[in-house]
What we know:
By secondary structure, the protein is an alpha+beta fold. GO terms for molecular function: ATP binding; kinase activity; metal ion binding; starch binding.
Amino acid sequence: MSIKFEIEAARTQLGQEVFVMGSTALLHDWGKLGPGIKLFTNAQLFPRWTMENALKIDKSQVFEYKYIIKDQRGNVTWEQGENRRVEVNTDPVFIVDKEFGKTNVEGKKIVQNRGAGQITPPSNKPQEQLLHVEEVKHDQKPITKPAQSHVIIDQSRITTDTTQQQIVSKILELNASHRTWKEKLEVVYEVTSTYGPQCLPLVAAYLHFINSHMITCAENGTHFRPNHHAELSLKLYQILDQLQNAENSFIIRSIKKGLPSFGDSFMVAVPLTRIRDIAHRGDIPQEMKSEIKNRLQNKLHRSADPGDLKTCEELIGRVRNGGYSAAFASEFEIFYEELKEFFNATGLEKRLENIKSGVSQGEIAEFLSAKAQNRVTIAQITHLRETLQTILKDNPHKSLYQQLQLADIDLEQYLFVKLSELLESPATALNMNKQLEILMDTLQNLILSGTYPEELSIVLSEVGLFSKCNQFEPINVKRLKATIERGMRLARRFTSQVIESFQSNVQALGQAFSIPQQSVSVFSEGFIRSHLIFQLSKVSEMVLAQHRKILKLPPFVAISTGPNKPVLGQVKYCAHLSDLLHIQSLLSPHSPLLILLDSADGTEEIPLSVAAILLRHDLPQLSHLAIRARQAGCVFYCCENEQTFRDMQRMTQGIKDLCKYSVTGGGVVKIERTTVQERVDHEIDGEGAREVKVEYEVEEEEMEVEGYQIMGDYTESNGLVSGDPKAVKELGSKSVNSLRLTEISKGCGLFKTPRQVTVPKNVNTYLVSIAAKKEFDDLNKELDTCAMWKIELLRPKILALLQQIYDSSDLSPLLSQISKDMQPAHLVAVRSSSTLEDLKKLAGAGLFDSVLNIPVANPQALKSAIAQVWISLYTERAIQSRKQLSIPSQAAHMSVLIQEQVFSDYCFVVHTKNPVKQDDDSVYIEIACGLGETLASANQSGNPYRLTVSRDKQVNIIAFANYSQGLYSNLDSKELKEVHIDYSQVQFSRDPQKLIEIGKRIAEAALVVEEAYGGVAQDIEGGIVVKDGKYEIYIVQTRAQV
């Protein structure tokens, strides 16, 4: 027997996928045997998701099933409510479920198709036989099995009715009873007033479909003159102005363009009277007079809508063909322009003529003259926009209010055309100065349009400063390149925002109103390709291509070179590494994976099955993920530009044969099919997934702990000395190394260290053991033995248990002692110091939490921060790491390192052995603005300052920083603050010599630390505090470089 499934899932967005999963092995037994059966869709099918091939099934089988939606990060939305249940006893069968989330019997159609062969979608023919269907009650997830796939379940994403669905339903409901255009504008007003910013994409699409006649207007016997439409439009403008921000300005501008005019002439009680006079003229034939009166005059005064403009265009076309008096034709032309003005369909020239009397007449007249002669400059357009916006700002509620805004939108669209002409000119293609001039003009106009005004203003400032230098000097090229890449990131962000805003919204609305799929599909793309951000992306790529040529850059950046030989495996595209981690047990250990990775935030674990990675974007060389890649021997490269990644993705798509990931001597990554001999050799060698063995210790339980004790400086009295294995065992390597740094700093004077104390691991162990030892041990055992995908089911239990223990524990003696010992510090950083950090083969970078800016005199805040660090033994990434390396939870213990908060203006990470070139003769340094979280975790896109310093103090600046934001703290505020960074004001970018000087100082300090550790290469973290013009270096952590 054969069976297929289909579901309508209009709520899916770009990048999401739909699976069916159930209680039978055929449907992966609620995730136990796999992630479920993947469905597919396309532009013609959407919102229907169906199976590509039928499944084979035994006769008379009864099973339960549900659909899930999975996004690129692995988050899953389950259908709420009851399990779907079906009894199959005919062949073949096509199951069609009406709507995702509606599991009731009315939402299901199960069709037995008569006849053999392929299963085809069902029709509504009466001979179709509905099979027996039952429903089983259930609590959100399938009740017969653990009902989770091999992915993280984000419960916050599981909803029965999204806001989007509510808004679409509301629009659909109101539209049915609001038939005229005036009433449909009332729908827009009501929905916008009720739902605010979240409804704007749907409102924009609704208006677009109305104005393009895909949602039709009709009369309903009511009589409302056009002044009612104008009044509604004014009210909508006022609401939209209140809602507008940098994230939605592009949507609001499109909505405003689709509303009628509320100019003074349309706000009077009886507007558009000229058509009445025309209809009563005596110099036109009766037939034309009748048509004008009935099809235009009466219709406009009863129920105006955009169709009336089409009617007028039809009639005036006939008048222009001749046979009518000149006086009548002239009057009709005037009325036609008035009607276009009412529907805001006038051209740029006419709109500027209309507002010329209210603004600088000379500037508009000069612009119109230049336009007529096709000699308008970008500077003219920009200056005129600035003039109009200044007038609008000074007179926001005068009669020019709407026309000034629409003129600005028209000028923006005209600019788009002019920029296209310039960018397609051969004279621009090779002239970098011209490209930079166009780039700055584009940035300035995007700011005028309200697109990311704060950050684009910063990018404009940076380009303006850095482009003044020698454009072909490598250090200047690197500096400008960093800024332009920042602008490119914003262009990609805008594209993602448009898709996110419109993709599912327009699909849902289009489906509700039966809009042709082609019209729905091009809506989002039309926004992107007609927006100035498209030109920004285009000109930025032109400049970056020149920069890559000048710097002779390969298209790839090495993170971890791995073994010096090609790596063989199966090529897979992956949105996020967690997608693989959760199905690792299903992957063949004999077939390593070569991953084309779309996104990484720097905190991920690398699955053992992954032998090589090519990442779409750049990554800090010293981020946690980069360290893990080198530690695992995983080949890891990043793409210098996105197009290279997309080309590689396209070329490898659909290849199922074993492939080869190799790197040429020039640093070029190649992924290509293997030869027959290479595949034979691979079989003989038996190379499979990576194996990593880590030495760890499971301690004997010693629970006779009385009271709490913290450790500060080591002295003979407490029996612990720096570097002593006993000290490491009690406090963790991080704490012991931090104390040793204090000793080193006193001897060299090259850097400072923060004051610190440590809460030993036995405090946490003691608290848990006296409260719930057996329950805690049982949960750990279950966690150690479960499949990777089950982590998210068990984590909440152990987190809740620990939180309950810590909340009920009295830590006041400990907190008082910390407060006393940390004086005069006001704020502290509470950091992990686990027994599973800084091991010989396990750096443990980024596995556990740190909490910054904690007031040491606030016992509750301090207790909460300590508890958060203790609990971080059970972060998802920490558990995944232990499970991959087969480390039992018994081996994981947590001391807590409390350090005085360093208010860094810059942060840095140093490897005393260059990790990229495996070079002992140079130190590798990365520096970023603000605190170290951005640099270590790579949680935002961009680059740090990158430089190498040779042992003889020769400095090479590899790259300049372009992170958009820095994280800062200070004594006056308990909250960490994210600040947009303007590198035209950052000393290291303004004056590269300052960057070279600080690089030398950091390298010198790092090498002293390395020497103190017997010449063992070190991985060092620290900060730079700028005080009275002086740069003070702090080192807060060191460990053996992996």
